[in-house]
Amino acid sequence: MEGSEGRQSFCPPVAVAPPVIALDAEPERVDQPKRTVMSRPGNGTSGRGITLLANHLKVSVKCPDEIFYQYSVSITCDEKRDVNIKRIGRKIIDKIHETYSSEFAGKKFVYDGEKSLYTVGPLPRNKVEFTVVVEESSAKHASESPSDNGSNNHSSKRSKRSLHSKAFRVEINFAAKIPLKSISLALQGADAENVQDALRVLDIILRQQAANRGCLLVRQSFFHDDSRNFTDVGGGVMGCKGLHSSFRPTLDGLTLNMDVSTTMILSPGPVIDFLLANQNVKEPRYIDWARAKRMLKNLRVKAKHSNKEFKIIGLSERPCNQQLFSMKVKNGDGLDNGGETIEITVYEYFTKHRNIELSNSAYMPCLDVGKPKRPNYLPLELCYLVSLQRYTKVLSSVQRASLVEKSRQKPRERIKVITDAVRDYSYDDDPLLATCGVSIEKQLIQINGRVLEAPKLKAGNGEEVVPRNGRWNFNNKHLLTPARIERWAVVNFSARCDTSHLSRELISCGRTKGIHFERPHTLIEEDPQNRRAGPVIRVEKMFEEIIARLPGPPDFLLCVLPERKNSEIYGPWKKKSLTDLGIVTQCISPLKINDQYLTNVLLKINAKLGGTNSLLAMEHASYLPHIQETPTMILGMDVSHGSPGQSDIPSIAAVVGSLYWPLISKYRAVVRSQSPKLEIIESLYKPLPNGDDEGIMGELLLDFYRTCNGHKPAQIIVFRDGVSESQFSQVLNLELDQMIKAYKHLGEGDIPKFTLIVAQKNHHTKLFQASAPENVPPGTVVDTNIVHPRNNDFFMCAHAGMIGTTRPAHYHVLLDEIGFSPDVLQNLIHSLSYVYQRSTTATSIVAPVRYAHLAAQQFAQFVKFEDLSETSSGHGSVKSIGSTSVTELPRLHMNVSDSMFFC
């Protein structure tokens, strides 16, 4: 097959330096969607039946013809600036109900927390304007404690409150009609308009109910102020258990999906106790007050002496016993004739004029709860952090581990929490829901599921491995194709580890698995003088030592790190080894060295060095329905984003592609950086001015051609992770179009058949056995009852949930040109959960997605720990996408480009 302009199509790749990225390169855009999500072709029948419960509650709607009316709300104040309705919106809505009920004919409203109101039936007029006077809480209490013009004159306090009242102009305009009937049409399988809007209104009604009860609202979850729901995770931070709720259209009708949810909050209580815990110090004298100021800003506190609430804007510049402020006092004649102004410390004011004893605030800064030009000081010991204040910073590894440990719930415990909440909180007891005739059942729905048979595996020497409960082992078994390791070394970055003992045990365990292990050429301990240097310098010094001691490039390096999680060495080490030198490495940080631990390490090492740990028995026998007779490529795609608040960190797109068809267990990854927080992959196809394609897809297509004896994929199965339902159309059109263009760029006329599947783990559906307390068995699949009424989706628990409650993977088949039957596709996806080479357990989501996720995360370390523009030795560059500059990731060295480096 000849390509355009005389090129040989799918010619083998040539090792050259990566081309320069065109600065004006833009991802393809599609004006009108050309493809829509496919409908369900039927249901699967394979596997044994099982009766399950799902955390969905049946919802009935007795008045489906009701219509919600949406009104946009515009609020401005005297300063002619837009107002954050989230800050004062509830006061505005309360004033509407209280003062202008006649305008709205006594109707009840729900408020979305942004700029919309909803009610059933229309208002008397399409446009209403009025003024509402609201007293701001910060101004209302400004004179309750020392300020630059404070006073202990009570009449003065009343006048100050009136001065800080503000008039807000409110304009309400009709925006749209949202018929409740659209939900009924969607339940019948129609592609109804407004269905998402109608469901959103129902969700908002439940949110407003929770808000009226004083709950903290976080998206579609709400959290009650109940200490029984709090769990301390250290650092002054607590996990707060709450409830997620969302209305879902399903095959069995409308349901309410209820689940246990967790968010992070600050530990309520004395501010000083919080600071001690947050900074992990025992006494106030050790507190870093600059750090404390950053942490406390914008937090809400309640004053013990007045029981009033304030927002912290900062700390005083001086300690409490030195911080002065001006205070007016009356003349001796008792007449209110202005009196005199004196300078007094905050400490003296509270101890002498308010008769409040302060035991430990004298030498600490005060909290400033006023305004930038009108400070208002409170002693620390009089202030308590208000409950239910979210903590949005990144948790430490210790905090994360503690949260996971303390948040686990067994299936029966989770069921009880949900059903108790439904019983206690009466979610359908709402005037608007009553108007629509909406009622919610109190019990979880019962559904039918199936348990698929686990696939058999092939190990070395033709031995068969039979998984039990989603697990297997290599006890007394060889790996299928073990690697040969001759020249290797162990390096230790100051970890407390006997590397000599570690290497002997690793060799012994490896030989029982068939791996040919020579003794390590050398054991290198980090020079103590380098330990205080930065991570990049430490890595450079270590590689200088490696090069000096080894006679040539090693086959493999075992790197011992001092920290198990988030080691600052990891990113620079991986970048240096994978992109600069092309050396396969394995990082470890062992707590206990035993056979199970060493086996898991060896599985990763063997895969990285080109070996194969196991294959599916049907894969080994070349019996894969729809795949063995037609060249088929399998892709896994994911995008990794920076932590919350890191808006300038590039996102990392990773795509893995299968190699050596008809195998489905071998993969290679291609990774690119892209615009921050962008979920849609923009570099699948990247045409350059010179006519070349620098995109991800073209690289993987060439790899497939090279490893499959010149075969080109006639079928491509794509597993896409991390996208929401609102992005399905973009995946179907933008990303798929890029893949097709990349294929055509190689000179091909016949386009492969595509099957496109989205794999989701970020959802709230849980499955429970109806007659047993344990988690559902591995292989459980549900494609009835709680699935979408029209679209082709299903839930699968491929793995064994040993701790907590199993979360199923939710698969959405957006497109299926290959034409899989439900049974064949579900069994293929189940089998792909058993080919993850670094594990001896079935994975909760298909291996290609797990590999893509790992590859994106590993390359994100390069951005996280190092400035590539200064230290990448010419491999990194900066590309511009629109107005955003993005650091281009370095490419893998050719020596490891085919390695499963992400294992």
UniProtKB/TrEMBL annotation:
GO terms for molecular function: RNA binding; RNA endonuclease activity. InterPro entries: ArgoL1, ArgoL2, Argonaute_Mid_dom, Argonaute_N, PAZ_dom, PAZ_dom_sf, Piwi, Piwi_ago-like. GO terms for cellular component: cytoplasm; nucleus; ribonucleoprotein complex. Residues 139-162 are annotated as: Disordered. It comes from the Eukaryota. Residues 556-864 form the Piwi domain. Transmembrane segments: none annotated. The keyword Repressor applies. This is Protein argonaute 16. One of its GO terms (biological process) is regulation of translation.
